[in-house]
TrEMBL record:
Lineage top rank: taxon: Bacteria
A Pfam family per the record: HATPase_c_2
Transmembrane segments: none
The Histidine kinase/HSP90-like ATPase domain, residue ranges: 10-130
Positions in coiled-coil regions: none
SUPFAM superfamilies on file: ATPase domain of HSP90 chaperone/DNA topoisomerase II/histidine kinase
Listed name of the protein: ATP-binding protein
Length: 147
């Protein structure tokens, strides 16, 4: 079985908590362990915050999350101009220790089991985050995803 949620949201900071709560509620209902949900929540927050800060001139963005077996795949897709030249996430250096800004990519890389960036110049950018799930004993997700 596969479970998917998809949201098209305004590029507004108020959309981030809504997205987090919806995904966390879904994962909680499936019985995903709290530490894994916390990691996913933080990764999702950083990816959405980057869209809100950087995805000019887009007015909206899309978040989709798919759970299949023991894997959660999150895609955050903006409709902006894509990654600016010289700002390819694969080549951005980590922020300095204690930096107030610029740690989002570092956080996503540290928490995700896999992370991919796709740039569609003038058609936006896609951040794909994957996280292996652990279910609590007797969790509904363990039984549903096995079928």
């Amino acid at each position: 079985m596969e479970a998917t949620i998809a949201l098209r949201l305004p590029r507004d900071a108020a959309s981030v908590p809504l997205t987090r709560q919806m995904l966390d509620g879904t994962l909680r209902s499936l019985g995903v362990e709290p530490q894994v949900r916390d990691d996913i929540e933080l990764m999702l927050t950083e990816a959405c915050s980057n869209v809100i800060r950087h995805a000019e001139p887009s007015d909206d963005y899309t978040v989709s999350a798919t759970v299949h077996d023991s894997l959660c795949v999150i895609r955050v897709i903006d409709n902006g101009n894509g990654f600016a030249p010289g700002k390819d996430p694969e080549h951005i250096a980590d922020a300095a220790p204690g930096a107030e800004h610029g740690r989002g990519l570092q956080i996503m890389r540290a928490l995700a089991d896999d992370i991919r960036f796709t740039n569609h110049r003038e058609n936006g950018a896609v951040v794909c985050l994957e996280k292996r799930l652990r279910y609590a004993p007797g969790a509904a997700g363990r039984q549903l995803m096995a079928t």
